[in-house]
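Quick one - inputs below.
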Amino acid sequence: MSGEVAAPPSPLAAIRAIALNTFREAIRDRILYLLLAFALGVIAVSRLLSLLTVGSEEKIIKDVGLSAISLFGVLTTVFVGTSLVFKEVERRTIYTLLANPVARWQFIGGKFAGLLAVLALNLGLMSAVLGAVLLLRDESPWPLVPAIALILVELAVIAAFALLFSSLTNPILAALGTFAVYVAGHLSWSLRLLADKVGSGLGAVLCEGLYRVLPNFDYLDLKASAVHGLPRPPGLVPAAAAYGLAYAFVVLVVACFAFQRRDFK
Amino acid sequence: MRGPTIGPPPPAAPPARPASGPAGAATAADPVLLLRRLRKGFKGHLGLGHRQALESLDLELRRGECFGLLGPNGAGKTTTLKLVIGLLRPDAGEVRLFGRSPADARTRARIGYLPENPYFYDHLTAEEFLDFYGRLRGLAAAERRTRSARALRRVGLEGRGRVALRKLSKGTIQRVGLAQAIQHDPELLILDEPMSGLDPIGRREVRDLILEFRAAGGTVLFSSHILQDAEMICDRVAILDRGCLRSAGRLDELVSSRIEGYEVTLRSAHPATLPGTVVARDGEHCLVRVADLQELGRLLAAATEERGEVTSIWPKRRTLEDLFLREIGRPPEERR
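Output:
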């Protein structure tokens, strides 16, 4: 029997191990395949949709393809992400996991990294199919890459929210909360409009406050400009990516604090 | 940091093992675990109501001993173990694990834990599960393979590592849980109801495993309500009831060394006239219980006088079950 002393695991090793397990769990989940098959189906038949509508076929293929990537990415994030922490607690697998030399923030970090890896793989597959459809029509898919990259950043923000809600409540409420953030994040411009209409007072302050606190997903939405080939301000993509990643980081920190204080009865 | 390795049954005397390694601030003489005035309560649903799960618990666990936490359901055993591991935070009091807080992740590298009725990842096989935990414990790939195979062999699951966990029975899952608990050769094994869900053979194997672990110098803290198992493997026990410590001490002091009377089987024509209490009778043969040595002397003298025949004399010792039932049956105001 060996009696050698193992080095204490590095923080990254624990995060990597939990991420790998999360990735394994997700890719062995049938829901993921169902969503992915549906998304790939929509992208593959986007050419048929283009025949039924008025306008440039390529643009409609790109528009439908990018929308499908975004929508199914969000659905995957919500379905997989909102149950990640809850399942560990509900099934009590977290008892033995946290009895190891693993800090709670590492657990949240690992779950996030694993989920992000699943989303990236998902996004990569969907993008590859869209790219193949475009290449078959002698259309370059490369102008869509910045838009797809920012979809991944948006999914990272939504994944962080999904983990935060999953750390606090059950999957149904977590899914509702995450969807609410997704919708509110895409309509945050309307809060500014509302604040202008209200004028002054508590309502205006509330609208302005919410506008500033909620994520601004429009900032990360380059789909229209990518489809129509519109010019973009220089530095927009890296700035938007930095904004999204910083936002996801802050939400994850909040999730870690919430999880740190939790008792496991 | 490395704890005992489980192998063939070693000699009975446990060797002293020094505490060392990254979290080894404590010396070998320090207690492995110290609980001081530990209190924990839980709020009810929607924050209404309050249930006191643990009431000012003091315990000390020494290196190399096997300590049994006994009590009926709801006594506070699992709560105590969760506080020790850091899954729960105490309302008051202190937990020192190897001289440190259990919140210190490095401290937890030195323990192996098996929860009550464990459930592990459905999507993994036993080998993948152990590999995952080996990674969390910082083991290198080759070491993970070696240790996982050894742990599975030790719990009787050799050759079943590639079966998905969802296909395993409750008892087999319990064995996988034990395998993960001993995979990294921890210094302290914390087992919550380790015998539950196991058949008699499984129970025997777990008992042997615990005894081997302790004999190799490891420390064991386990909870159980199966008193027979505790009686066979524990050095010390504590009896908890409704969050209160009712009795604690060395098992031999608490139970087997106390003679609480004698049971005498004899043949007598007039058993009703004998000193003591006749507890069973079959014709002239009867079983008489006497309280102490003096009464035993009087009984033997009376039997000799009437030319009776004494068949056997058994000192009656208090069993753990007797102690347990007496402590649990005591009203709360008589606690401690």
